[in-house]
Amino acid sequence: MTIDNSRRTALVGFGALVVGVAALAAGPSRAATTERIIPPGARELSELIDRLRRAPRRRDFKTVPMILQHPDFWDEEALKEIIAYRGTHKQVWDNTDIAGPWLNLMRNSINGQIFSFGHKDFLAVSATHGTAHLALFDQPMWDKYELAALAGPKFKTNTLIVPKPAPDSFTESEDPNSVFGSDGDTIPALQERGVVFLACHNAIWEVTARLIASGRNPDHASHEAMAAELTNHLIDGVVLTPGIVATIPELQQVGFHYVAS
């Protein structure tokens, strides 16, 4: 299967990681500023972000199978870059509950690792599945398939992908109203700080099954076609894996410290 490199949907989102901050709401494009949100001198992290920005993301699927057996179906190049990360301090978060404190916990971990322990190249990776995975779909999918019904009463829309309108810089680390405080508990804010969000094909397949079972299939699509559409609507910067529970051991094998949120 040929990968269409023209559909690198991560380029815009991850371009903002290297040079600045997102400045729009839930749309697919972001306006970059000249500020950096990663620590000055974090060379390994900066280089990883740049490689991830260039790595292709295929988002033109028509159908996808239940079990992915070929790397053309996931973001192989980006995932390999994460596994090969040369930084010595790295953490993988097993995130399953969209209504839980997972974004807050990752932000606190990054703050402590960078500012308290001085690990500028600290890399946090969100191994996202369960209901937390709903946060990785864009708002059009939330609208079309009424994903709020699966997310629970706290979410009428996907508020976790809406960045704050004002840009922040690394020099504002003591400002509680910056990305270093609770305003940073969004996916775009954490992406700007170098956090990588992994998507799970198995979670997409299971969400699709629930939607079909509940009658939320307006196009009367097959399971394979609906799962493909959801995959095509992962938000910018996300790295698709063949399955989170299978990917976590790959990360642990190369030194990622496991945390269940």
How would you describe the overall organization of this protein?
The chain is 36% helix and 9% strand. Strands 4-3-2-1-5 form a five-stranded parallel beta sheet, with helices on both faces. The protein is an alpha/beta fold. The protein has helices at residues 10-19, 43-54, 76-83, 102-116, 139-145, 148-151, 187-192, 201-213, 223-232, 244-253; strands at residues 90-95, 123-128, 196-200, 239-241, 257-260. The protein is globular and about 50 Å long. The protein has ten helices and five strands; from the N terminus they run αααβαβαααβααβαβ.
Strand tally is 5
SS-based class? alpha/beta
Strand content: 5-15%
Helix content: 25-40%
Mind summarizing the main beta sheet?
5 strands, parallel
The mean pLDDT is 87
Helices and strands, in order, run as HHHEHEHHHEHHEHE
Q: So how many helices?
A: 10
Q: What is the global morphology?
A: globular
Low-confidence stretches: 1-35
Give the strand order, joined by hyphens, for the main sheet.
4-3-2-1-5
Radius of gyration: 17 Å
End-to-end distance, in Å? 36 Å
Keywords:
261 residues, alpha/beta, 5-stranded parallel beta sheet, 10 helices, 5 strands, disordered N terminus
Give the helices and strands, then pairings.
Elements: H1 10-19, H2 43-54, H3 76-83, E1 90-95, H4 102-116, E2 123-128, H5 139-145, H6 148-151, H7 187-192, E3 196-200, H8 201-213, H9 223-232, E4 239-241, H10 244-253, E5 257-260
Parallel strand pairs: 1-2, 1-5, 2-3, 3-4
Helix pairs in contact: 1-2, 8-9
